[in-house]
Amino acid sequence: MRTIEWNPQNNTVQMIDQRLLPGEFRVVEFDDYRQIAKAVTEMVIRGAPAIGAAAAFGLALAAKQSTAVKTKSLKSDLFDAGLVLVAARPTAINLKWAVDRILGLVRDSQVDCDALRSFVLDEAQRIADEDIEINKRMASLGAELLDDGDVVIHHCNTGSLATVDWGTALGVIRTAHESGKRIHVLVDETRPRLQGARLTAWELEQYSIPYEIISDNAAGYFLSSGMVHKVIFGADRVAANGDVVNKIGTYMLALTAHANNVPVFAVVPTSTIDISVMDGSQIPIEERPPEEVLGITLNGQPISPSTAKARNPAFDITPAEIISAIVTERGIVTPPYRMKLKDILQERLEES
Questions:
Q1: How confident is the model at residue 342 (pLDDT cuts 50, 70, 90)?
Q2: Is 71 helix (H, G, I), strand (E, B) or coil?
Q3: How far is CA 181 from the centre of its chain?
Q4: CA distances from residue 198 to 16, 188, 202 in whole angstroms, order as listed
Q5: Are the C-beta atoms of 315 and 124 separated by less than 8 Å?
Q6: Considering only CA atoms, which of 94, 85, 84 is closest in space to residue 131?
Q7: What's the CA gap between 203 and 167, in Å, rounded?
Q8: Nearest Cα to 199, choosing from 234, 156, 245?
Q9: Given the DSSP bridges, would you call strands 230-233 and 151-154 parallel, antiparallel or unpaired?
Q10: Distance (Å, rounded) from C-alpha 154 to C-alpha 122?
């Protein structure tokens, strides 16, 4: 099944509860847009493209929930819902992108309430369907960057679970594998929520792709030893200059790869590129609850003193100058990034 989809029988949104994997595969169902926002915040669903689709379907739920009988009132309810959904996670731009895309169309719409409700759902479904096609185009392009026999370090989770289906960076690995290339993946645990050890490893097993889990701080050893050929990850937002904001730990990984002359690739849909921010320093970095760090146990015991405090930024900023290429559905972009990223976004705008 898809990571997230609309259930037309119940007019609900169903998604895989990613907090339970790999131990349990459970599909949860929501009928309220506020539940969708909470699911995004609590990481029932995660990954920039996936939460973009979640926000879109959240607006479809808001349209169904609204008791408005006049178009103006329904529009007001949708804009209120949009504020709640956008606030769920501030760093990943896809969430706001999806809300803005739908509400921009809603603002200009002149149809009655019933037609507007159907329109919002249709647009949300279109966003979800487009995500799969975009992922497959990126995967096909990015797979050309991987060679037969490559050992690749992958950070966080960027597969089907992070998108509606197929995946971004992990989709590239999957496509290379299915084309016959022998790819071996070193999976960063990705602390503190362990999306690599829990989710990426689980997905690689589904695809029968060889892998080994490594601790985040072991990446430097493997990179300096010459055993790794490529580093690949996704992004939650890309600034106009090519700076990449991604899951915490990405910067250290990319910096170490750059120091050891190992190519670093980010795989992102153009919806993740935000040219309204000049560089990564202008992107808000979400800080999550310290319990995610302090709640880790070893042999059934807490790893830290009961009075300990912690800081828990969810993302970091990888400077454009240490990224070898950015793979998008519209092509592989190489440095310098600023004008090239602007050009591909303009192409997308002209075709829409």
A1: very high
A2: helix
A3: 25
A4: 14, 10, 6
A5: no
A6: 94
A7: 10
A8: 156
A9: parallel
A10: 34
Select which of 150, 165, 236, 243 is catalytic: 236
Residue-wise pLDDT for 300-333, tens only, equals 999 999 999 999 999 999 999 999 999 999 999 9
Q: At what angle do helices 33-41 and 71-86 cross, to 10 degrees?
A: 10
Quote the pTM value.
0.94
Query: Closest Cα to residue 192, out of 266, 249, 110?
Result: 249
Q: 236 catalytic, yes or no?
A: yes
Question: Does the pLDDT value for residue 242 go beyond 80?
Answer: yes
Mean of the per-residue pLDDT values of the chain: 96
CA distances from 172 to 23, 157, 166, 337, 344 (A): 26, 12, 9, 21, 20
Q: What pLDDT digit, counting tens, does each position of 56-101 carry?
A: 999 999 999 999 999 999 999 999 999 999 999 989 899 999 999 9
- Of 158, 176, 177, whose CA–CA distance to 168 is shortest? 158
How many separate helices (H) and strands (E) can be counted in the chain?
Answer: 12, 16
- Evaluate if residue 15 carries a pLDDT over 90: yes
Residue 171 Cα distances to 71, 143, 157, angstroms: 41, 9, 10
Tokens describing residue 247: 């899951």
324-336 per-residue burial string, b: 16 or more CB within 10 A, e: under 16: bbbbbbbbbbeee
Q: Which two tokens stand for residue 327?
A: 């793979």
Q: Where are the alpha helices (DSSP H) in 179-310?
A: 195, 201-207, 219-224, 250-259, 291-294
Select from 29, 95, 105 the least CA-distant residue to 63: 105
Tokens at 79, concatenated: 């804009």
State how far the Cα of 121 lies from the Cα of 105, in Å rounded to an integer: 12
Q: Any idea which residue has 């997308």 for tokens? A: 348
Token digits of residue 126: 């279109």
